[in-house]
Hints:
This protein is α/β, with parallel strands linked by helices. The protein has eight helices and ten strands.
Amino acid sequence: xxxxxxxxRVSHRVMVATDVVKTxxxxxxxxHALRGVSAAFGRGEFTAIMGPSGSGKSTFLHCLxxxxxxxxxxxxxxxxxxxxxxxxxxxxxxxxxxxxxFQSFNLLPMLTAEExxxxxxxxxxxxxxxxxxDTVVDALxxxxxxxxRPAEMSGGQQQRVAVARALxxxxxxxxxxxxxxxxxxRSGAEVLGFLRTAVDAYRQTVVMVTHDxxxxxxxxxxxxxxxxxxxxxxxxxxxxAVHAIMRKIEG
Length: 251
């Protein structure tokens, strides 16, 4: 019998986390943020991660993205186990294989939207295919805003710039940490809609932490964490079904 991990699909595995443990401190004061978490993420799959405050969901995302180290276990992106890499090599993997969208946008205020979008490719020394740049910019409705700086754009427009920047280098995995947290409902729906399009049309892999059941329902599946472990997994989620599981966990 073949052992499977949460998230196993027919699609090609892009990232696999196995028995990930994250402990802060030691002795009686140790905090066990993750307690042997395992999950697999496939090509063209949108995964939402949810859980109560302190459940370990943000820690898990940060470990998957190489933004935090693990105490034990492995995280493999493509064919590279990132848990054993030097800081310099890990930075290269994050630059070349990962994209990031954060709640706070993280745009450089002195750069225009176009300059912010192209920044990651320039830092990586990679030539961006013009056709792909045009596809991303037009799909996100940013053509008329390319010469605007962040202060001249709404929160929704800034987040769309951040999404465009994250997708421009065609990362193997795009991580989104509460990407709609600072947006109104309309802008949030627009950003989620494009993440959904990136998965369906361009086979992008997206891993998103959210506290919003409406946002989670846009994903292909939801992983529910509590006390540092995965308690449940929901495929083809609906808002009502997500609400029901969260009520049970928080219960």
